[in-house]
């Protein structure tokens, strides 16, 4: 038994509660990142315009991620509120929260962003620094991906709501099915198997969009089935609650601004890196792709910490909330050290999975060596930020992102790349310093304990 203030906790039971939630999330996030790697590998093996195809996918990802980040901002509020209602055993309000999030997401972000990006695809790629060859390859890909974005957003919102009640196996299963079909669709449509035309990078987009439709359909089928406390009944009259909407906006708005700041920082940073040439930019995208895979455990533990933080605060147990967070931090940090060693010693092998061009391989190895040192700080920061968001404390993650991603990463990236001339290594030095500063800010906030004072309406 371990004491927490005036309470005693069974550490074994707490770990079991954590792993009950975290392992399906980890598999879902890991396989999602792995399938993303496979996507890029398959695109990178296109016989013509391989570097342009990889760059097009990487550049397109940024506005897509920006749109998803706005949706996920509302989802953060939805997860936090649903987790509190679940912890407080006020189940009747849980489905109502999901309806409010869906309404806000579709009307506020998803449909407007999709229409704009489809209409302005070539101009957006040009703004991101793409040359003419990348724009030619990437415009059709971008438009198809933005159609799939509509269904992807619906799916993400339902997944976030299910996580709020601790149900993580269903989203894992549904996303595994959808992503597996995506890989199969890639093989058929990119390379023209079984009599299908060779569509190249556009085929990858079509396959991805169809997999988003499948994932959304599977998640929707579950929340319509009434198999859990979270279910949608569209026959019921929609009851608009102003206080609930205020809570969603109050928690979600800083997260939206956080993600906006992050994307502005990333896009500005990508403009700096893209000036190093197409092959170096492709190496940068490969390194980011590998980083996304290796911090999957941290993402999973961050989501778990968010869920358990919200449920514990809903049950009026602040000591338990703190204990869950610390256990997630410790386990996640140990895993991150292992990932760092894997990246550091396996950089050449990892690079050669993605490309056969010597310049791309060499630059990827340089970046991955630095990624290995980024990993532990990023992991701990992601987990702690997840706990803060679960408490509804979303302002400090915004501060950390603004300072790290915009002030530190962009300014130092410009100095290291354009003034000192350190190339891609200089860009990744800036990433390391950015992540270290974010870690310090988030750790300071969590240790202050002020997150426990965040309140939502539990009427």
UniProtKB/TrEMBL annotation:
The keyword Cytoplasm does not apply. One of its GO terms (biological process) is monoatomic ion transport. One of its GO terms (cellular component) is plasma membrane. It holds the Pfam family MatE. GO terms for molecular function: antiporter activity; xenobiotic transmembrane transporter activity. It is a multi-pass membrane protein. The keyword Transcription regulation does not apply. Belongs to the multi antimicrobial extrusion (MATE) (TC 2.A.66.1) family. Multidrug efflux pump. This is Probable multidrug resistance protein NorM. The lineage of its organism: Bacteria, Bacillati, Bacillota, Bacilli, Lactobacillales.
């Amino acid at each position: 038994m371990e004491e927490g203030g005036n309470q005693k906790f069974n550490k074994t039971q707490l770990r079991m509660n954590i792993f009950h939630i975290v392992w399906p999330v980890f598999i879902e996030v890991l396989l999602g990142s792995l399938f993303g790697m496979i996507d890029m590998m398959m695109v990178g093996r296109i016989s013509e315009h391989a570097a342009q195809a990889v760059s097009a996918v990487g550049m397109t990802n940024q506005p897509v991620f920006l749109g998803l980040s706005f949706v996920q901002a509302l989802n953060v509020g939805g997860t936090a509120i649903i987790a509190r209602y679940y912890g407080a055993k006020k189940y009747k309000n849980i489905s109502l929260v999901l309806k409010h999030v869906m309404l806000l997401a579709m009307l506020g972000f998803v449909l407007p962003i999709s229409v704009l990006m489809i209409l302005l695809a070539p101009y957006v790629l040009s703004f991101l620094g793409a040359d003419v060859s990348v724009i030619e390859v990437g415009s059709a890909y971008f438009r198809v991906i933005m159609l799939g974005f509509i269904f992807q957003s619906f799916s993400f919102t339902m997944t976030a709501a299910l996580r709020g009640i601790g149900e993580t196996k269903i989203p894992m299963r549904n996303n595994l099915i959808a992503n597996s079909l995506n890989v199969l669709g890639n093989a058929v449509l990119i390379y023209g198997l079984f009599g299908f035309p060779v569509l190249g990078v556009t085929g990858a987009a079509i396959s991805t969009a169809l997999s988003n439709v499948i994932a959304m359909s599977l998640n929707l089928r579950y929340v319509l089935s009434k198999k859990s406390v979270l279910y949608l009944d569209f026959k019921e009259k929609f009851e608009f609650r102003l206080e609930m909407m205020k809570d969603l906006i109050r928690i979600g708005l800083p997260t939206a601004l956080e993600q906006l700041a992050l994307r502005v920082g990333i896009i500005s940073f990508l403009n700096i890196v893209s000036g190093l040439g197409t092959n170096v930019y492709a190496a940068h995208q490969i390194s980011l792709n590998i980083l996304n895979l290796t911090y999957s455990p941290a993402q999973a533990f961050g989501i778990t910490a968010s869920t358990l933080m919200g449920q514990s605060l809903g049950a009026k147990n602040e000591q338990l909330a703190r204990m869950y967070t610390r256990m997630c931090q410790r386990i996640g940090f140990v895993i991150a050290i292992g990932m760092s060693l894997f990246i550091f010693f396996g950089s050449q092998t990892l690079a050669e999975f993605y490309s056969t061009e010597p310049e791309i391989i060499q630059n990827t190895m340089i970046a991955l060596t630095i990624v290995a040192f980024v990993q532990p700080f990023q992991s701990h920061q992601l987990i702690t930020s997840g706990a803060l968001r679960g408490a509804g404390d979303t302002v400090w993650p915004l501060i950390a992102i603004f300072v790290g991603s915009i002030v530190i990463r962009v300014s130092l990236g410009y100095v290291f790349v354009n003034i000192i001339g350190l190339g891609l290594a200089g860009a990744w030095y800036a990433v390391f310093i950015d992540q270290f500063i974010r870690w310090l800010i988030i750790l300071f906030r969590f240790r202050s304990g002020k997150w426990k004072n965040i309140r939502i309406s539990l009427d």
